[in-house]
């Protein structure tokens, strides 16, 4: 539902001509760069490798690389599950096909206009209901995190915690590099704006975003900074910023892609090229509908892990550091 809602928010795009197309292209480009950075740094630093952890043994005893992830059959099965029989994808747990099908539904709602207004409203209401349930669960998260940490410290070697700290450091460093180097460089090359001018004009919004870990909560302040400090037209800011808040989750995509490799290394699995592409595609599409709330990555992390057959239970070991990495 989050992906359907995220894409259906493009409804207003027809009122601004090419602006929504440029905005969408920018979102896809920066998210792709974030995914490449996340995957590359996870490989470079070999996050999670070399640790014998028993927490996943039961989940991984029957693990085998699914035939559907072999290059020869992946695209054929993907097209069949997405376009011919999407309900089979639901029943088989083919997450990537389900995500792409949701993307198509969102596009159909955009092109349907007023004819599908009731379905669009229902999707938004269902999404808000699910976010309310997630919010209730997250209020209990500190208790669960404490229990998980206690179990890890009591049953696992200290190397597990050290690897977790290394992973947190790699993701944090990569995210900072993406936000402080890659994005300003793109701004300078294509936007012809000094990164210093941009950071100076948006520092209030950036500080608020860092403190709240919520792009939705920061959105009104971002719009104010864009209009008053950077001279962006109100109609442009009123469209681009809300759309970017929903679709441009670079940090979430980077975190989830790196986390998939971290979990694979923990359990001693080497993801092949096709599987890594699936991880990137799923993380990208999932980030389009990730809610702009704290710990949004946990909402879609299961989707990314299951897309390549990794155990959903793996989020348990990531929960203790999720709040730190929530970008």
UniProtKB/TrEMBL annotation:
Keywords tagged on the record: Membrane, Transmembrane, Transmembrane helix, Transport
Main location: membrane
InterPro entries per UniProt: DAACS, Na-dicarboxylate_symporter, Na:dicarbo_symporter_sf
Keyword Mitochondrion attached: no
GO molecular function terms noted in the UniProt entry: symporter activity
SUPFAM superfamilies: Proton glutamate symport protein (SSF118215)
Pfam families listed in its UniProt record: SDF
Keyword Protein biosynthesis found: no
Annotated membrane topology: Multi-pass membrane protein
Gene Ontology cellular component terms for the protein in this record: membrane
Subcellular location: Membrane
UniProt protein name: Dicarboxylate/amino acid:cation symporter
Native organism: Acinetobacter baumannii
């Amino acid at each position: 539902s989050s992906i359907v809602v995220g894409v259906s928010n493009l409804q207003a795009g027809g009122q601004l001509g090419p602006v929504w197309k440029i905005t969408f292209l920018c979102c896809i480009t920066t998210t792709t760069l974030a995914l490449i950075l996340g995957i590359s740094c996870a490989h470079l630093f070999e996050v999670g490798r070399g640790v014998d952890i028993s927490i996943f043994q039961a989940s991984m005893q029957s693990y085998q690389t699914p035939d559907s992830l072999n290059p020869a059959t992946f695209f054929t099965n993907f097209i069949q599950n997405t376009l011919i029989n999407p309900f089979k994808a639901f029943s088989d747990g083919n997450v990537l096909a389900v995500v792409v099908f949701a993307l198509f539904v969102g596009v159909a709602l955009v092109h349907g206009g007023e004819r599908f207004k009731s379905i669009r409203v229902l999707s938004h209401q269902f999404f808000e209901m699910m976010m309310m349930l997630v919010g209730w669960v997250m209020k209990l998260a500190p208790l669960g995190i404490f229990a998980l940490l206690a179990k890890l410290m009591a049953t696992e070697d200290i190397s597990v915690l050290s690897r977790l700290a290394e992973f947190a450091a790699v993701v944090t460093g990569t995210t900072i590099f993406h936000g402080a180097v890659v994005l300003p460089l793109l701004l300078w090359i294509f936007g012809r704006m000094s990164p210093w001018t941009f950071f100076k004009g948006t520092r209030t919004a950036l500080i608020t975003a860092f403190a709240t870990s919520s792009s939705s909560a920061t959105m009104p302040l971002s719009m104010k900074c864009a209009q008053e400090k950077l001279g962006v037209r109100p109609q442009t800011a009123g469209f681009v910023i809300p759309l970017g808040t929903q679709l441009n989750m670079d940090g979430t995509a980077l975190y989830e892609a790196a986390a998939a490799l971290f979990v694979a290394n923990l359990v001693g699995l080497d993801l092949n090229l096709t599987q890594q592409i699936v991880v990137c595609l799923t993380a990208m599409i999932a980030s389009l509908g990730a809610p702009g709330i704290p710990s949004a990555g946990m909402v879609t992390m299961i989707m990314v892990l299951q897309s390549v057959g990794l155990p959903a239970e793996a989020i348990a070991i990531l929960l203790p550091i999720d709040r730190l990495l929530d970008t």
